UniProtKB/TrEMBL annotation:
Enzyme class: oxidoreductase
Pfam families linked: OCD_Mu_crystall
EC number(s) on file: 1.5.1.1, 1.5.1.25
Protein name per the record: Ketimine reductase mu-crystallin
Catalytic activity: (S)-cystathionine ketimine + NADPH + 2 H(+) = (3R,5S)-2,3,5,6,7-pentahydro-1,4-thiazepine-3,5-dicarboxylate + NADP(+); Delta(2)-thiazoline-2-carboxylate + NADPH + 2 H(+) = L-thiazolidine-2-carboxylate + NADP(+); (3R)-1,4-thiomorpholine-3-carboxylate + NAD(+) = 3,4-dehydrothiomorpholine-3-carboxylate + NADH + 2 H(+); L-pipecolate + NADP(+) = Delta(1)-piperideine-2-carboxylate + NADPH + H(+)
Gene Ontology cellular-component terms listed: cytoplasm
Entry similarity comment: Belongs to the ornithine cyclodeaminase/mu-crystallin family.
Highest taxon listed in the record's lineage: Eukaryota
Quaternary assembly: Homodimer. Binds the thyroid hormone triiodothyronine (T3); T3 binding inhibits enzymatic activity.
Length: 352
């Protein structure tokens, strides 16, 4: 076989290509693709098995996440050269290989909890087109999944969207991406931060203060809190992004009308929130296949997939506590991998 070249996109290149609106646009299509059972509907569709794990004792795991995503547009209608026309459609064939080792951050020197790469293939020939460093992309796509879930499940029930308060529980990598993504795409009057090690929240506050002038509210108040309870008080939207194996958010901390994006705690998934929350809330998920395998021990009411909400197959509650229980799925990586590869190739062809 003739040798074949592929590109390798590193984090510094990916940072330059980042546009949150485009990322949210492809993530919404990833959600739709898993809920759409009719390939001829004109909507995105996909094929993705439940991901496979190799456990390394109790220390960590290697995850293999393959997916095919069909009929997506990597550009939103408003960003293409002819905004009046339909956005061009493409597909994505990809596999993310990722490791999750929970003790990595406390090593000396510290290492990320999550380390991964996305392998992107030509969907007509199967040839490897690109490898993309996936730590940064996992941060972006997981935050974008929470943003889309919040827009679909929670924001329709909020009449006045100009006074929202965001709480971030856990200001590690994911907490940071979530704070940045939400501030870039939605207006908040306050962003509240809590982390087990307070210094880390203070560091994030400094970064977010620098970002604020380029966010949806340059006057946003960013505050650091001493406890999860103080941080959650008065929040409309909460993100939990920790590796805690015991509950850190309880119902008594919450407003009556609140949305939580529960994204942390690795492969145990639902340990960050107390059972009294799960007893009362409506849970939305990313995909049933994954939930059957990875949320088998969750005792709560799962209403449906976020994609089912977008497709109007499921109705969202008009008040109360909603939870987006984020597992993370391969089509999200296939979507963001294709978006960044396309943008990179476009710039290369323009001679940048
Ligand atoms: N749902 C999804 O798609 C994804 C979920 N994750 C999960 O999100 C979580 C955070 O990941 P990263 O931000 O990348 O990790 P990180 O290592 O950057 O941050 C971990 C955070 O958890 C906190 N933490 C650890 N143990 C704790 C405890 N017992 N109590 C309270 N806080 C504790 C740390 O202070 C830190 O803020 C992990 O559980 C990871 O597996 C990560 C990527 C995707
Ligand atoms: O989807 C992902 O990527 C991950 N999800 C759960 C924790 C590890 C990474």
């Amino acid at each position: 076989m003739a040798s074949h070249r592929f590109v390798h996109l590193v984090e510094s290149e990916l940072i330059k290509l980042t546009n949150w609106k485009e990322i949210n646009h492809v993530l919404e299509q990833a959600f739709v693709s898993v809920s759409n059972k009719d390939k001829s509907s004109g909507q995105p569709y996909s094929s993705q098995p439940a991901r496979s794990f190799v456990h390394v004792g109790d220390a960590g795991a290697l995850l293999c996440m393959p997916a095919f995503l069909g009929n997506i547009s990597v550009k939103s209608d408003s960003s293409q050269s002819n905004p009046a026309g339909p956005a061009a459609r493409t597909s994505s064939l990809a596999c993310k290989l990722i490791t999750s080792f929970k003790d990595n951050p406390s090593r000396n020197p510290s290492l990320p909890d999550i380390i991964g790469n996305i392998f992107l293939f030509d969907e007509t020939t199967g040839q490897l087109q690109a490898t993309l460093e996936a730590n940064y992309l996992t941060g972006l796509r997981t935050a974008a999944a929470s943003i889309v879930a919040t827009e679909q499940v929670f924001l329709p029930r909020i009449a006045d969207k100009s006074k929202l308060v965001l709480g971030i529980i856990g200001t590690g990598v994911q907490g940071e991406f979530h704070a940045m993504g939400f501030m870039k795409t939605h207006k908040f009057v306050q962003v509240k931060l809590w982390n087990r090690t307070k210094a880390r929240s203070e560091q994030l506050k400094t970064k977010l203060t620098q970002l604020a002038p380029n966010s949806c509210n340059p006057d946003v108040n960013i505050s650091v809190h001493d406890s999860p309870e103080e941080c959650c008080t008065n929040c409309d939207i909460i993100v939990t992004a920790t590796s805690s194996s015991v509950p850190i958010v309880f119902k008594r901390f919450l407003k009556q009308n609140v949305h939580i994006n529960a994204i942390g705690s690795g492969l145990q998934h639902h340990t960050e929130l107390a059972q009294d929350i799960y007893d009362e809330c409506s849970v939305f998920i990313d995909y049933w296949n994954g939930a059957k395998a990875e949320l088998a021990t969750l005792k709560s009411t799962i209403v449906g997939e976020v994609g089912e909400v977008v497709l109007k197959q499921k109705v969202v509650p008009s008040s109360g506590i909603t939870v987006f229980q984020s597992l993370g799925m391969a089509v999200e990586d296939a979507a963001i991998g294709k978006l960044f590869y396309s943008k990179y190739m476009e710039q290369l062809n323009k001679g940048h």
